[in-house]
Every structure is written in structure tokens, then in C-alpha cells.
């Protein structure tokens, strides 16, 4: 067994002290920046340490290899998604469908810098489909939960279908804003209007309590 394989079985060190936790956050932030900029394969442990302003020994103290750094980043990104969608579900009770549409659109735009290396990690890893499915699954479940809070009569299966449409709309809009998707100057605003109309059409019939709905769409 080569050294890389044996090292890959070692786990990351979980610091107990606040200073250690802060250092780990700095190292992970540096790794996320570099992997988003250059890709997973091109990023080295030495570059991560240098970007974080840390000694290489400090990085290896917490993470035995780059794969361990990647594992920690995936967990960090998934936790961010869980927290943000949980917060969204709490907010949704006070939002109209139009307002919820705007909040959802902005959410993916604001989330992207916090999970910026997730795409690079998914592209590089052998378990990328599992990571992608986890990220998408959390997003769909989180959006569906917010939709059902906003429209209490909405059934879970339909909420997830609508959530999948919303998630794809969010991704297209982010691509337009970042110029990674075909666009024109006013196209993002048009997509926002379409998104509002879609959610208003699908949610309004279910805004009443479930036992009072008699003529809602299936």
C-alpha cells in the first residue's frame, strides 16, 4: 500500500480550543477559494497553507491530506445548505408567493460564495454523484418545506415537483448574473418576473388551510 493510500485512511483532527477551530475555518476558507479558482486537482496543500497564512505543518496537523480537506469542505457546504433552508422555511410563513419567489432567487446568488468550491469538488471526486445528489436533495427538500409553509394546503409530492422547477430557475438566473449562461441585459429581470408568476399561480390555490380547500388544483 502506498503512502497516499495509508494516509487517506487517517481522519481529520477536530480541535477542542477556539483558536484551533478558528485556524481550521481559515484553512478551509483558503482551500475553498483556491479550489473554486483553480479546481481540486490543481490545488496543493502548500498553496492552501500559504493562502491561509499558516505553516504547512499546521495544515497537516488538522488534515492528513487534500482528500481530508475536501471531505471537510463537503460537510461544511452541506451544513450551510441545511441551515439556510431551515431559516428560509421559518421566514416563509410571513411571505407572499411573490415575495418568496424573490427570496428564493436571491438565496442561491447569496449562497454561492459560501459554497463556492462545491462544484469543483463534485467534478473531481469519484463520489461526485453522491455529493451532487446530497446537495440537490437538501435544496429540494428545503425549498419544498418553504413552499408548504407559504401554502399550507400544498401536498408534499407537488411541493417537491415545484421545488425542482424553482431550483433550476435559480441556477439559470445565477448563470445569467455571472455570465455563465446565454443572456441579454434585461433577461435576468424577465426571468425573475416569470418566476414570480409561476409561484403565484402554483401556490395561491393552496394558501388556505388544508381543510378549507375544495377547488385547488391537484
TrEMBL record:
GO terms for molecular function: DNA-binding transcription factor activity; transcription cis-regulatory region binding. Residues 21-81 form the HTH tetR-type domain. It comes from the Bacteria. InterPro entries: Homeodomain-like_sf, HTH-type_TetR-like_transc_reg, HTH_TetR. Pfam families: TetR_N. PROSITE patterns: HTH_TETR_2. Residues 44-63 bind DNA. Gene3D superfamilies: Tetracycline Repressor, domain 2. Residues 1-14 have a biased composition (Polar residues). The keyword Transcription applies. Keywords: DNA-binding, Plasmid, Transcription, Transcription regulation. Residues 1-20 are annotated as: Disordered. The keyword DNA-binding applies. PANTHER family: HTH-TYPE TRANSCRIPTIONAL REGULATOR BETI (PTHR30055:SF234), HTH-TYPE TRANSCRIPTIONAL REGULATOR RUTR (PTHR30055). This is TetR/AcrR family transcriptional regulator.
